[in-house]
Backbone:
C-alpha cells in the first residue's frame, strides 16, 4: 500500500512539474511571438534570429523557448553581468552586447528586465531576450567583417540601463543609433525587444496572482532539480573512460584546431577544451560562454528523457577552458565568426568525442557552418540598407536514416527569408535557390544535401561571406564526407572568380555571388 501511495505521489509531483515547465516555456514562447511581430528587420521578423528566456531571482535560467541553441549557455552569462553591474529597479531594462560580459558577438544584442512580483526590493524573476541586429556599426555593413580586433566589428555596449522606470533613455538611444547603420530599423528592433520583456512581465504577474510568487519560486527550484537529476543519471550511464576528438577551422590558407577530451568522474562529466589552439587575430575566437552553450546543447540532445530547459542541465558538467585560447578568448580579440562558425565546430568535436564514447549513437557531422551572407549599401535615392542571413546546409546521417537536406543544424535554428520579402526589401534578385544534388556524403545512410544560391545585385554593395568547410567537407562516421562549401563572385559577363571561406568584397551593380553550402557526412559503409 505504501509503495502504491509513493508511486502515486511521484506521479502527481511529476505532473505538477510538467505543468510548471509548460507554463514557464509558454511565457518564453509568447515573448518570442511578441518580438517577431513587432520587429522591423527581416532577420528578426522573418528569420526569427532571436531567443527569449526566463530567470529566477538568483539569475538561474528557468526556461528558454525553442529558438537559437547558441544562446542556451550565453544569455545566462549576460543576465549575470547585468545583475552585477546595474542595480535594477521596477520598470528598468539593461542593454548589452559585450562578448566579454556574456555576449557572443556584437550583432547579438541582449535586453534584461527585472520582474518584481512580491513588493520586495529585489526582483523575483528576470526576462531576457537576445536578437541578432542586421548592423551595429563597424567597418562592414552587417557588422560581420573579418576584423582584427573587437572594435573593428562594431559598437561595444557594456551592461547599461536603457529603460529607466518604464521610459527609454532618449539620449542613450540617440547615441546608440548614431553608431549603427539604418537607425530607424535598429530602433524598431530594440523597442520590439522591450515589448517582448514586458510581455513576460504581464504573464508572470498573472501567474503570481493565481499561484502566488512563493509557489512560482518553489517550482523553479524543483524544475532545476528535476533536470539536474536527469543529467546526472545520464552521466552515470556513460562508460568510465577518456576519449578525445579534434577538428579544424579555416583561417586563410591555414587551419586552427579545436580539441576536446571527455572523461566521466563519478557522476561528473569533465569536458576539457584546454588543448585547443590559441586565440587568433582572425574573428573566429569565442568567449567562454559559447563553449558553455555548445556543451549545454549536446547534453540536451543526448538525454534519453525530455528535460526542462534550465541551468540544471549543466549541474554534472565541469567545463575546462584555457584563457587566451580559441574557446576562451580575451579582449580585444575579434569574435564575429566565433559565434556562427566556431560554435558549430565545438558541436562537431563534442559529437565526435561522444561517437567514440557511445559508438553508433551519434550522427555524422552536419554542414558545420552557418554560411553567413551580409551586404549593405545605398539606394539611388540615398537611403541605406543592410542585410544578413545564414544559409542552410545538409544534416549528418545517422544509424536511424539519411540526414535532412537544406536545413539549419545544431547551433542555429533560424527560418528562411522568403524570396518575395528579400526582393521587396533590397536591391537584389535571387536567380537560383535549390538543393545541391548529391552533396551529402555517401554511406549506408546518406548525408543531407546542402543548398545552392545565386544572388544578383541591382546596386553597388559591400558584401561579406563567412563560412567554413571549404577545403574538407563534413566528416562521416563510416561513410564519406559531405561536399565542401564553395563561394564565387560572378561578374557582369558571367565570369566566375572563386572566393575563400571568409571574405569581404565590393560588388558593382550587375554583379553577384554564387554560393554552395556543404552536405552532411554519410553514416556506415555504402551498400553495394
Residues:
Amino acid at each position: 500500500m505504501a509503495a502504491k501511495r509513493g508511486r502515486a505521489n511521484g506521479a502527481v509531483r511529476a505532473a505538477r512539474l510538467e505543468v510548471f515547465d509548460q507554463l514557464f516555456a509558454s511565457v518564453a514562447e509568447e515573448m518570442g511571438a511578441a518580438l517577431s511581430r513587432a520587429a522591423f528587420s527581416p532577420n528578426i521578423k522573418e528569420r526569427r534570429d532571436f531567443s527569449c528566456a526566463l530567470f529566477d531571482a538568483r539569475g538561474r535560467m528557468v526556461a528558454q523557448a525553442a529558438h537559437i541553441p547558441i544562446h542556451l549557455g550565453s544569455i545566462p552569462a549576460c543576465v549575470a553581468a547585468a545583475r552585477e553591474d546595474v542595480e535594477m529597479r521596477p520598470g528598468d531594462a539593461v542593454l548589452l552586447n559585450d562578448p566579454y560580459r556574456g555576449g557572443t558577438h556584437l550583432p547579438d544584442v541582449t535586453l534584461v528586465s527585472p520582474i518584481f512580483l512580491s513588493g520586495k526590493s529585489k526582483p523575483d524573476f528576470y526576462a531576457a531576450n537576445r536578437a541578432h541586429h542586421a548592423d551595429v556599426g563597424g567597418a562592414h555593413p552587417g557588422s560581420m567583417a573579418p576584423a582584427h580586433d573587437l572594435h573593428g566589428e562594431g559598437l561595444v555596449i557594456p551592461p547599461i540601463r536603457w529603460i529607466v522606470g518604464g521610459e527609454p533613455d532618449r539620449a542613450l538611444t540617440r547615441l546608440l543609433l548614431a553608431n549603427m547603420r539604418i537607425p530607424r530599423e535598429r530602433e524598431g528592433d530594440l523597442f520590439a525587444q522591450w515589448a517582448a520583456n514586458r510581455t513576460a512581465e504581464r504573464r508572470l504577474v498573472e501567474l503570481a496572482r493565481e499561484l502566488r510568487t512563493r509557489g512560482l519560486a518553489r517550482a523553479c527550484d524543483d524544475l532545476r532539480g528535476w533536470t539536474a537529476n536527469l543529467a546526472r543519471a545520464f552521466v552515470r550511464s556513460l562508460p568510465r573512460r577518456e576519449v578525445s576528438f579534434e577538428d579544424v577551422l579555416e583561417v586563410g590558407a591555414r587551419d586552427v584546431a579545436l580539441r576536446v577530451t571527455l572523461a566521466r568522474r563519478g557522476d561528473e562529466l569533465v569536458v576539457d577544451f584546454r588543448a585547443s589552439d590559441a586565440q587568433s587575430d582572425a574573428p573566429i575566437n569565442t568567449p567562454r560562454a559559447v563553449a558553455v552553450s555548445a556543451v549545454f546543447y549536446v547534453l540536451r540532445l543526448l538525454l534519453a528523457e525530455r528535460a526542462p530547459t534550465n541551468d540544471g542541465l549543466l549541474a554534472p558538467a565541469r567545463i575546462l577552458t584555457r584563457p587566451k585560447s580559441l574557446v576562451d578568448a580575451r579582449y580585444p580579440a575579434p569574435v564575429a565568426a566565433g559565434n556562427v562558425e566556431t560554435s558549430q565546430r565545438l558541436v562537431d568535436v563534442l559529437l565526435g568525442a561522444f561517437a567514440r564514447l557511445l559508438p553508433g549513437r551519434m550522427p555524422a557531422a552536419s554542414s558545420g557552418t552557418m554560411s553567413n551572407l551580409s551586404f549593405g549599401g545605398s539606394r539611388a535615392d540615398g537611403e541605406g540598407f543592410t542585410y544578413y542571413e545564414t544559409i542552410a546546409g545538409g544534416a549528418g546521417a545517422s544509424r536511424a536514416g539519411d540526414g535532412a537536406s537544406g536545413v539549419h543544424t545544431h547551433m542555429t535554428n533560424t527560418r528562411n527569408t522568403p524570396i518575395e520579402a528579400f526582393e521587396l526589401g533590397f536591391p537584389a534578385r535571387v536567380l537560383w535557390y535549390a538543393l545541391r544534388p548529391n552533396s551529402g556524403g555517401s554511406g549506408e545512410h546518406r548525408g543531407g544535401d546542402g543548398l545552392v544560391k545565386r544572388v544578383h545585385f541591382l546596386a553597388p554593395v559591400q558584401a561579406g561571406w563567412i563560412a567554413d568547410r571549404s577545403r574538407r567537407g563534413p566528416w562521416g562516421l563510416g561513410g564519406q564526407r559531405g561536399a565542401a562549401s564553395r563561394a564565387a563572385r560572378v561578374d557582369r559577363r558571367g565570369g566566375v572568380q572563386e572566393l575563400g571561406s571568409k571574405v569581404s568584397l565590393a560588388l558593382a551593380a550587375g554583379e553577384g555571388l554564387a554560393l554552395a553550402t556543404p552536405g552532411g557526412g554519410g553514416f556506415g559503409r555504402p551498400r553495394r
Summary: The chain has a mean pLDDT of 95. The CA atoms of residues 42 and 175 lie 24 Å apart. The chain is about 30% helix and 25% strand. The longest strand covers residues 254-265.
